[in-house]
Automatic annotation (TrEMBL):
Gene Ontology BP, a term: intracellular protein transport
Biased composition (Polar residues): 314-336
Matches recorded under Pfam families: Vps26
Domain of life: Eukaryota
Keyword RNA-binding: no
Protein name (record): VPS26 retromer complex component B
Region (Disordered): 309-336
Keywords: Protein transport, Transport
Family according to the record: Belongs to the VPS26 family.
Source organism: Dromaius novaehollandiae
Amino acid sequence: MSFFGFGQSAELELVLSDAESRRRVEHKTEEGKKEKYFLFYDGETVSGRVILTLKHPNKRLEHQGIKVEFIGQIELYYDRGNHHEFVSLVKDLARPGEFTQSQTFDFEFTHVEKPYESYTGQNVKLRYFLRATVSRRLNDVVKEMDIVVHTLSTYPELNSSIKMEVGIEDCLHIEFEYNKSKYHLKDVIVGKIYFLLVRIKIKHMEIDIIKRETTGTGPNVYHENDTIAKYEIMDGAPVRGESIPIRLFLAGYELTPTMRDINKKFSVRYYLNLVLIDEEERRYFKQQEVVLWRKGDIVRKSMSHQAAIASQRFEGTSSHSEAKTPSQPAENNSRQ
C-alpha cells in the first residue's frame, strides 16, 4: 500500500542545537558553487535533534529503527561509490515499532575527533555530514546535512626564509628570496628578485601560486595542477644589479592549508612559481614549495567556548611535541 502511495510517508529534518549562534562559512561544492555551512573544529561536540514529520496524521508509520550518524569520509572521483570513512559514529534513536504522530529525537556526539579539514578538489572530496535514517522494509527515509571543518595550527617556531640562485649559464643569473617558508592563509609574501647577470631580453616577470593535488597510491596516482593566482611583479627589461620587490597578499585567493598524505588517500601542496618571459615568448621558471596553514587566534574570537577549549588543547599538544623535536615546527595537520 505504501508503495502505491496509499500508506504513511514521512519527512526528516536535522537541526543543530546551536544553529542560531554557530558561525557559517562558504565552502565550494563539487559543482564549483559556493554555499554556506555550519563551521566546526576538532574536538567540538555535535548535538541537535531529528524531527520526524508524518505526512498523514493518525495513520501508522511502521519502521525497523531510527538512527543518526556522524560521518567523515573521503571520495575519490575516479572510484565513485567507494567511500572511505575515517569517522563513523552512530546513535540509535528508536527501536523498531510504529508511530501515529510526529516525533522529535535529541542526539549528541561528544567531543568528536575531526582530524582533517573539509576539502573539495579536482579529483577528491573530503566531507563531514550528519545522516538521519528511518529504516523501512521497502524504502528508507534518509536526510543528510553537511558541515565544514577547519583545522587550526599554531605559529611555526622554525620559519626560515627561502633564498636561491638560479639561471642559465652566461645568459641569466638571478637570486630570489622569500621572507618565510610557511604562511598562514591571510599572510603576505614579502620577497625580492635580484639580477646578477642579464644577457637575454626579458619583457615580463610574474609569480604564480600553484596548487598541486595528488590522489591515489601506487600505479593509480593522479596529479592535478591548478594555477590559483598570477601576480605580475615586473613589466620591462631589467638590468644587472636591479632589485625587484615582491608583496603578494594571500587573503584574496581561495586557499586551503597544506595537506600531506591525508588518510593515505590524497595530498594538497602549494608552490610559488617564478616565471620570466623573454621577447621571443620563451618561458623560464623556478618552483618553490611553501607550506600554508590556518591561523587559530583570529578565528577563535568568533568560536564557541567548546571550540576555544579544543583549540587550546590542540596548541598545548603542539607545543609539547615541539619541545621533543624542535627541528619539526608546528604545521597545519600536524597529526598526519
